[in-house]
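STRUCTURE:
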């Protein structure tokens, strides 16, 4: 059932989940997972094997959703 509450409609437009970018360091085709190193140096295991080792990948809620562009990164402290 659709809601008439404007706040609920607004919240429904926002993307959910945790999104990040990391570099694929290993692929395990038998398990269907990849080891990914995040920008802060932490390694995680993500579901999916679609991105090659050494390439960057988009990760949403622990699932590799596709390749990410290899762009420079700058950290600015304010």
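SEQUENCE:
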């Amino acid at each position: 059932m659709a809601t008439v509450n404007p706040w609920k409609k607004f919240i429904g437009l926002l993307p959910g989940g945790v999104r990040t970018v990391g570099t694929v360091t290993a692929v395990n085709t038998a398990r269907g997972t990849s080891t990914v190193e995040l920008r802060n140096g932490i390694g995680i295991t993500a579901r999916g094997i679609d991105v090659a080792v050494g390439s960057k990948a988009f990760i949403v809620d622990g699932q590799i959703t596709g390749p990410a562009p290899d762009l420079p990164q700058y950290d600015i402290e304010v």
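REMARK: Residues 16-67 form a domain with the OB fold (Dihydrolipoamide Acetyltransferase, E2P) fold (CATH 2.40.50).
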